[in-house]
UniProtKB/TrEMBL annotation:
Keywords: Coiled coil, Plasmid. This is WYL domain-containing protein. The keyword Coiled coil applies. Residues 205-232 form a coiled coil.
Amino acid sequence: MPRKKETLTLSVPPGTKNKLDAIAARLGIKWGERPSPSGLVSAIADSSLYVGSYFSFSREEIEALQQAIRALIDSGQPTLAKSVVTLLLNYAHLEAPLRQELIQTASHPLDGWRIQVDQYRDRQQPFRVLYANSQGKILEFTVRYAEVQFHEKRDYLQIWCDETEDSLDLPELKHNRCLRLERIQGILEATGEWRGSFNSIPVQLRFTKEMIAAYKAKAEDTENEVIEADVQKQIPPYRRVTRQIVNPFWLIREILRYGSSCEVIHPPAIRDRLKNEIQKTLQHYL
């Protein structure tokens, strides 16, 4: 016997039915192949669909959830990351740029590359990485050493690789590259030897003014001492730090935050690169 149904007639402003169709389609509420506004109303009535105001998140809460999404992706938990993305898209009132960014995140596969990287590292097994750079070009790297490193609120994959042809880095560091985990397209086993470390170079820094006391030592620091003032030579006190670096990009970004309170003393190549970066920035304000 067919199930008896009640009839409900609604009078709505022009365009409302199209909006209801769009909501029903987005939520997967359909009659056959077509979105069903009637099914949408029924879902609201039996409380299987929540209707109410969007969650109100502060800017700090939104940033915390974004960082949680990145951390879940980087740690190899894509399913949980997608759950947080879906929660925000369905229930949070978001500005258009952030909403579009989250939609792009949700529409791409969030493979847990971190797990595979850790497995190869544990076995000291070289591997190949297929990687999409910022321009969408697919590159291939043969990795012979790798570490997951934390920079500026997220994890990155620092690698030593065979390929150096397109590297613009210093000759001593051409084999070192830093990759974003979510841009990895695939990982395959490779043959050959596993290295025990990255290439690195020492960089000497001089901290002055408030940074003499405020500087926090890094694990890569091989020298860290305060040099007292030399009154006769009119040299004020400063902190001398020598650090082994594998990637000048992150060092320069750090130094720029210190402003005039930090100076690269050696080597000249890093000093010149920092100077060029400051000069290019200055051109925007001339």
